[in-house]
Specification:
2 domains, 12% strand, 5-stranded mixed sheet, 18 helices, 4-stranded antiparallel sheet, alpha+beta, 48% helix, Sulfite Oxidase, Chain A, domain 2
Length: 530
Amino acid sequence: MDTSPEGRHVPAADTGAGGTQAGFRAELDSKHYTVVDEDWAGGVPAQYGVAPRVRIGHSKWFNLLWLIPIGLVLLMVGIAVAKGIRGLPAVQDFMGRYPGTSELPDNAPVGFPAWLGWQHFLNLFFMIFIIRSGVTIMADHPRLYWTRHSTPGKEWFRIQKPVPTDPLYTAKQDSITLPNGVGLPGRRHSIGLARWWHLGIDTLWLLNGIIFYVLIFSTGQWLRLVPLRWDVFPNSISVAIQYLSLDWPVETGWVNYNSLQLLAYFITVFIAAPAALITGLGMSPALSTRFRAISSIFSIQVARSLHFLVLCWFILFIAIHVTLVVTTGALRNLNHMYASQDSESWTGFWIFAASMVVVIVCWVAATPFTYRHPRIVQKVGYALIGPAQRLFEHIDSKPGQYTEKDISPYFWHNGKYPETEEYNQLQAGNFAGYKLRINGLVDNPAELDLKQLRALPHHEQITQHFCIQGWSGVAKWGGVSMQTILDLAKPRPEAKWVVFYSFAAGPDGGIYYDAQPIEQMSYKLTMLAY
């Protein structure tokens, strides 16, 4: 069973239900996604967006690159102020009472076990691919919103120009390209492959995190990561003054972190990491429809925005963490994490250097490997995330969640409009000559024009649409229930799939098509919209 326009050329030898099906198959893509090249996604040319911007008020936008000079000025002011106040008697008395480190219980462990070094490396390794693929996912719809509606001009963050007034501007056109060494893979509209990377590596990162939690709580290492005394806050202020005054506190991480380090590690391990998981799950349409009460407030767009802010925290933490590791005694710090020893030897450095070779080689190879072997990326990704997907996947076929007041003020167009002469002629005639062909494993093949389709029982619904690119919207749809189409065509018992053929071009040439299990055609929300 499939659907298609009557105007499509079908070879004479392929007439009839089965023959027409074979004719369409001959027009499908021939590459089968064996490579991602310049023709990928219809050969959409590269575009690189704009510097990150945050909306101020209703229509003003602030270029975040200004944070660099502003931050430098504030840092210089902070250094001057810290140096000026550090000599004051009251500040000296404060820093004497709160030197920067809270006392640990007597049973707190000392030093870093070898397993912690492995956990640290694996976390670094996985985070690289999670962040790179996440940035590519972000680039496919480079706008963030605080409402479930993805209305242009109402986003709070964007890395793309304002949406043009062209009514046929599509979400696919809005996507941007990333440099191969930054995005994973990076090419415009490669979000499907980026998601396989992101979700697959997420699975390994979460597994590593679970092992980490088990080990820190079973060995007592959690005592070094959780604030146990209220004085961690005044001590952290003391540490901040010491850092800003450029008279830094003595590094005592082997025994006890200073309070500012402790707060940063606690936020990263026990707040940011779980928040990454929760907001990631919040972006799942399946879970959104399963937990309606939660998703009515914590919408996918809110989850997407919060997920991005968690990413910003991780990037900020990594930048500051690496800077302090290097500037507060690189050899000793590297020995702590990579050699499990408190010394000034070069052992930790060489282990660290070897690990960086692995990271750099994998970083450089990831994008070209993905372009050359997309099917491998897809299969490995599904092997990693598939069990969880099958466990949580949920298709909601219940109507009635949304009403007229929930309809989005703007609904994105998607994909790329067909450019064939056949489609242009139909469009010029307002599709008066269009016919829907229903054939395949059916007892009653049919061809219906728009007038005949509109004569069938009308079906109308208000539903939320989730796009893989990241945008969403609530709209009212009108057309024919697919159950009405099934009743008309009478599919045979052996029919398992319904294939929809399109005028549009597929990502590797041929025609675009979509296949859905035939049992889903009986759901109340499944419809053929006109």
